């Protein structure tokens, strides 16, 4: 038998055709309209609408589809004046209340083509490829410059909601990298206006780094699921943040908090540290996050109870191009190079693993871990269903499992490699009070593994 193989269980059907998305019956996950599980695997392409041509957009979407992504997070409006690759402006005037819309929708006649037709074009492309677009109506820093009473937000969001109401591949990200207590009246009006037309769409709030939507909007009628931004800082980069609320790189802590809230709503890390972005975001001298870091954020949050995960790459999220000047955040390459860096390709292995076992019964399972759990990078995170369990270690350190929490005489164990999706040969063993496991390789950062336990 070979040293490694692919997953030994057939993946749960996750839907092939584009369908409306819904919150699952138990309130923890998302599902397709036909009841099959939807594991959110998103990429951040914030400036897709503004910076890419139609041909470039298709190249990007094809790549992300091939790598297993099913959601693309994108800004509708990042700045004012808002203009796209073709020189088309989104609005007449300086605000959001007069969308500049041409008479027709021809993509071959420039006089009948506008900013919003380009958005439609990309939305159509995404739909044909089975991809959903999670769209931010207006980035927070721009929204703060508008009239504070927020009537513009209600008017603009009402127009957006009507224009895109028929598209089942649209998800709304209200907010946009901003604290919810900044212009809260704007976000409530925008969320309410979008919700009025969103019978086929889901809505959440994309907050500022190291905060979560649930702090302000958990009980808002328009918020279908929670999103947090764990951000781009290291443990030691606390800065001026309140130490009482500091979670460092432990994005699983946000999930723990959201998981305990009532009423139950799904939760997800909508912006963790990006691949190839400076640690701390702004200073390249601090070093850069890599693919191993993106894996850690993904497995920590999903095993803690998130319904999916959002990935990001520095060059891709800003669609950095040769004519973009120096770019932002110490970017070192272009979007078409960044999309081939290893982190993005590795995310599909998490999605495949989560869909390989009964999906909706999965719960956090830290009580499976016997003895000390570990701090910071030594932290172990466990999740389980009725007849299976997954335990993730980022450092590949040995650990013990409490066999009394497994109601079975025998356990089948194997190691899953998050870097390539390969699974070691399964070993059947008798269950004991304490089960000891030692992952392959030496204990060190980025030697990450998932222990798979199957039992009946």
TrEMBL record:
It holds the Pfam family Collagen_bind_2. Residues 24-361 form the Apiosidase-like catalytic domain. GO terms for molecular function: hydrolase activity. Keywords: Hydrolase. The keyword Cytoplasm does not apply. It comes from the Bacteria. Residues 363-454 form the Putative collagen-binding domain. This is Glycoside hydrolase.
